[in-house]
Amino acid sequence: MNAVGIDVSKGKSMVCVLRPFGELVVNPYTVGHTASELESLARSLKSLDGETRVVMEHTGRYYEPVAQALHEAGLYVSAVNPQLIKKYGNNSLRRVKTDKADAMKIARYAIDNWVELREYIPMETARENLKLVCRQRNAGIWRMSKTSAAGAISLSSWMSERTGTPKSLRMAARMRSPSFRPGPR
User: Fold this and answer.
1) Can you give the pLDDT at residue 170?
2) pLDDT tens digits for 131-150?
3) SS3 (DSSP) at 92
4) Cα-based distances in Å from 93 to 83, 96, 98, 100, 107
5) In what order do the strands lie in the sheet containing 12-19?
6) Residues 130 and 89: beta-carbon distance below 8 Å
7) Which CATH class is domain 2-120?
8) Is the pLDDT of residue 1 over 80?
9) Distant-in-sequence, close-in-space partners of 93: CB < 8 Å, separation ≥ 6
10) Can you tell me the distance from the alpha carbon of 53 to that of 153, in angstroms, rounded to the nearest whole number?
């Protein structure tokens, strides 16, 4: 069980690898966000014995190239809300705020929340899923409006037969109603 904590910043990241009980597998080190350095990082993480999970904060957009590269390399990656990391393990009187300390804190968080970690989904996959859901929702709304419009027309003709009220007057009254929403006919 290898917990990799990555503290991501604009052009580089601090990486720390821990095992349970605080065993330090690799001393914290810096990795640049170039393709070659991220490939090298992925190779070194894949060479570790046991299951490996990579955890990083999803701050801004800086984490995306790192998460994407490691995910594509076949590693389990989890991008966690920074508030969860911030609130985690604040039982010390000393507040050390360095990239190394942050990477170690993220790795400890990964160990303690191993089972609950959600796997990172690349943005393109998430975007495609969202488009599909939106298309399905819009198609459902369109079908409902077509059905309700057909029902309104048949109700309108039935009302005019029964009451003798011209359709134009009923339509004007309907348009003044607070619940009126124009839709496709």
Assistant:
1) 56
2) 777 887 777 766 666 665 55
3) coil
4) 19, 10, 16, 18, 20
5) 23-32, 12-19, 2-8, 52-57, 76-80
6) no
7) alpha beta
8) yes
9) none
10) 59
How far is the C-alpha of 117 from the C-alpha of 55, rounded, in Å?
Answer: 8
3-state SS assignment for residue 151: helix
- Quick: pLDDT tens for 47-67: 888 888 888 888 777 888 888
Name residue, tokens 């003798």.
164
Amino acid at position 166, single letter:
P
Helix (H) or strand (E) holding 130: helix 123-163
Integer Cα distance of 118 and 95 in angstroms: 28
44 forms bridges with which residues in the sheet?
none
Task: Answer left, alpha or beta for residue 21, where phi above 0 means left and psi between -120 and 50 means alpha.
Answer: left
- pLDDT reading at 180 higher than 60: no
The token pair that represents 28 in the structure block: 């914290």
Q: CB within 8 A of 32, min separation 6: which ones?
A: 11, 12
pLDDT digits (tens, 9 = 90+) for 87-142: 777 666 556 677 777 888 888 888 888 877 787 877 777 777 777 778 877 777 66
Phi, psi of 52 (to 5 degrees): -125, 130
What DSSP string runs through 20-86? Answer: GGGEEEEEEEEEESSHHHHHHHHHHHHTSSS-EEEEEE--TTTHHHHHHHHHHTT-EEEEE-HHHHH
